[in-house]
Hints:
This protein is α+β, with helices and mostly antiparallel strands. The chain has two domains: 169 residues, Endonuclease Chain A (Endonuclease, Chain A), CATH 3.30.870.10; 177 residues, 2-Layer Sandwich (Endonuclease, Chain A), CATH 3.30.870. 41% of the residues lie in helices and 21% in strands. It is built from 13 helices and 15 strands. The strands form two sheets. Strands 8-14-13-12-9-10-11-15 form an eight-stranded mixed beta sheet, with helices on both faces. A hairpin with a 3-residue loop joins strand 12 and strand 13. Helix 5 packs antiparallel against helix 6. The two termini are 18 Å apart. Keywords: Cell membrane, Lipid biosynthesis, Lipid metabolism, Membrane, Phospholipid biosynthesis, Phospholipid metabolism, Transferase. It is found in: Cell membrane.
Amino acid sequence: MRAVNLCADNHITLLHNGAAFFPALIAAIDAARIEIYLETYIFADDQTAQLVQQALTRAVQRGVAVRVIADWLGTGRQRSASLQQEFAASGVMYRSFNPWFRRGVARMHRKICVVDRQVGFVGGLNIIDDMVSDDDLRLPLPAPRWDFAVGISGSLVDVIHIELEAQWLRLGEMKLLARFQQFKRTRFKGGGVVHGPASAGLVLRDNLRNRRTIQRAYLQALGHARQSALLTSPYFAPSRKLRRGLEQAALRGVDVTLLLGVGQFRLQDAVSHSYYPKLLKAGVKIVEYRKTALHAKVAVIDDDWATVGSSNFDGFSLLVNQEANVVVMDADFSRALRQQIASGIADGEPISVDAFSHRSWRARLWHGTAFFLYRFLMRIITIGNGER
């Protein structure tokens, strides 16, 4: 199993919700002097997104090279077209990822930014207002969306920059030889022993060189867990290997708790519920978060392993889409993230083993049907991709 490639001596700042993330992002953009790469799944058309867009325009006016990538499906067809026009008029270079599914079904679900090769951001936050749902309805939320990102300075920023630069080139007109050279340049090698505070690594998932890297990072951390594992995801439909990793950790005495988002998509909730019985039987604790939209994809395992990123615990994130997480090996950072997750758990609703085992036959039938439909869809989408 390949280890995460860690870089030492990084300063990692945990950013909770847009209230912390967007001011930090805009401040970094306003301080840019050379170049900016920004990659996001959703680039909305709301007040928050306009503030980011205006900051990018100001950077261009200072002579900064600004390159933006947004996913065509996540951002929407009409918004992608309007962004193309607006950015072209302001001098921002813009590319839309996989318009009209020309590159297959995979989406670019990453949320990354690098400014001047000095400051980086990785997380789960799209360029969208915290108080607006990120589905097609764009409905107001009862409270700010619960999500996280990290601000990064240090050696890891160079790694992130290389990946963003390569992504930009891949989406342009590249000849076959140039693509092969970029592949060699961005191939991640196995990690070794790293010394120094705030060691961190970029963990990617794509359909070429990093097909299961994020899942393997989770499995390795769970396999070494001895005390506790707190994992958070808005969409939960784990692969067979990840489900077994959670169950085996709980069976050997690790306190495993899942904080899961529910309430956005009825079918997704039913799929998630189909996994509950075996996990609960193995001793995994499950808490559902209903206070507002939970969008965080974060975890803390034992005292010094933590991750923040874009990857959900479902088949699309683990086996189809392009994703990006940061793994942080630092006790102080892990403690801060653990406190945030514990706060979310306190606001959630624990799932009782007894209550769930006494579901009505209608609920059991609905959950089973949803599971069958989901598995059928994933088998079609992931043909040739091995373990599902």
